[in-house]
Write a structure and sequence with these properties.
- This protein starts with a strand and ends with a strand.
- It has helices at about 15, 55-65, 100-120, 150-160, 170-175, 185-200, and strands at about 1-5, 25-30, 45-50, 75, 95, 125, 130, 135-140, 145, 165, 205-210, 215, 230.
- The radius of gyration is 25 Å and the shape is elongated.
- It is an alpha/beta fold and about 230 residues long.
- A hairpin with a 2-residue loop joins strand 6 and strand 7 (about 130).
- Helix 4 (about 150-160) packs across helix 6 (about 185-200).
- The chain has 2 domains: about 1-120, Response regulator (Rossmann fold, 3-Layer(aba) Sandwich); about 125-230, Winged helix-like DNA-binding domain superfamily/Winged helix DNA-binding domain (Arc Repressor Mutant, subunit A).
Amino acid sequence: MHLLVLTDRPGGGKSLLPALEYLDHSLQDAPLEPSSLMGLSNCDIVLVDATQDLRLAAGATRSASMHEIERPVVVVMPEGGLAALKVTWGFDDWLLPQASPAEIETRLRLARERAAAARPQRAANVGDLVVDEDSYQVRLRGQPLDLTYKEFELLKALANAPNRVFTRELLLQEVWGYDYFGGSRTVDVHIRRLRAKLGPEYESMIHTVRGVGYKLVPPGRREREAEGTQPSDD
C-alpha cells in the first residue's frame, strides 16, 4: 500500500510509526494541514499525526471527511490522548505510535477493506455484460463495445435494474433529460443500435414489452420470458 502521512515530525512517517520500517509499504510525507490532501491521487490510506498538535490533526481529518475523500483516514494518537478523540473528526481507525508491525498491518488492511465495501458499486454486471461507470466502458465477454455516449447511458439505465420494465418516457427522462423535446422513437432507434452492437447471440437480452417499453434480461432467463415480451421494436 502507498501511505500518505500528514506529519510535521522531522523523521516523517517512520518516526511517527517506527514499526513501518518492517512493513512493505511506500510512504509519502506531507505537512499536517488540509491542503496536503491534494496529494491523494496515488495513495491508499491517509495517516494523520495526532501525537503533537491535536488541533491541526482534527482539522486535517475533518477536512478529509468534509470533502468525502475515498481513502481511509487513520489517526496516530498516543495513549494519553485517546480521550480527546471524537467521531466528529471523521477518521476511520486509530493507532498507537508503539503499535507492532502485525497490528499496523492488520488495522491498515481492515480499514482499506471496509472503505472498499462501503464504496458505491459503479459497475453493473448482467451475465457476460459489464457496464463500468468509472471508465465509461461496456465489456461483453471481456471485449469492449464501441458505444456512443447516449448508447452507454441507455444501456447503463437498463443494466442497473435488470428485469425492470422502463417506459420509453422514463428512459427519455433518464438519458436525454426532462428538457428533451424529441419523440419517444429516439429510444427505439438507440435500442436498435444497441442490439446490433450486442450481436446476434446477445441482442435478445434487450426485450421489448409491447405497449410499454424495454427491459434488460440476464441470459439465463431469456427462454423463460412470458409471451408478451419480444426482442423486437414493434
